[in-house]
Amino acid sequence: MTIQFGVLTVGMPLWVTAHTRAPAATVALLLVLNTVVVALCQVRAARMVRDVPAAGRVVLSAAVALVVACGLYAAASRVVAAAAVAILVPAVLAHSLGEVLSEAGGWELAFELADPRAAGVYQGISQTGFAVGTAVAPAVVTSTAVNHGGPGWVVLAVMFLAAGVGTWGVAVRYRGEG
User: Fold this and answer.
1) What's the rounded mean pLDDT across residues 105-123?
2) How far apart are CA 75 and CA 70, in angstroms?
3) pTM to 2 decimal places
4) E strand or H helix at 128, and its extent?
5) Is-contact 173 39, C-beta < 8 A?
6) Angle at the Cα of 160 (from 156 to 164), degrees rounded to 5?
7) What angle (nearest 5°) sits at the alpha carbon of residue 69, between those of residues 86 and 5?
């Protein structure tokens, strides 16, 4: 799921400027839109997550939102400038929703699934996973969506969906044994 940050900061700008007819300035506006949505929605998203099963459902919802965003990003390449912008706005809205939901669910899982006797170790490993995802995201995003267009966006969408379903599967099997 961490790769979604690379989609927003690397993939979307490259995609918009090189593969759509939207003006390059659209990228800045879309990033501002993301920032505003995240700032306004992150606390609400966190309130949706009260336990591990809820976190799993929220991460699955995040994955679905990211799948929608991938489809909309891909669709923006096939239309005139005004239509591309009109498609990119809901793409970033869906992406932003996926971002806040995945983070809310991820934080709950990171804390609740940690063994209390080794919480620091668990958090270190969790954050290492986040760092690895962030590090590989530019290569993954450019080698899929940016370089291959529609089929590449499908690959990313499938990755997000698999991550969401996998996370949900872990969460629903959780029984609190710690």
Assistant:
1) 86
2) 9
3) 0.94
4) helix 119-141
5) no
6) 170
7) 115
